[in-house]
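Sample pair:
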Amino acid sequence: MRNSGVILLILGILAFFYASSRLEEAEPLPEGLSVSEGLKEPAGRWQMMRYACAGVAGFGLLMAMFPKGR
């Protein structure tokens, strides 16, 4: 489990930086959009990808730190 956690952590961090670089290339979202409306735009999808990658990296960190539970 520890190795899986480290792999998830590394993949999550790398994907986060990739999504961040792609987000910089996209034009910014207009103000006042809901989440479902924002996902129709490329910038909204890349922003959501950043949050998902941060979650994967956080889960990987937990798995690496606590491989057998408590």
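Residues 26 and 66 are 38 Å apart (CA to CA).
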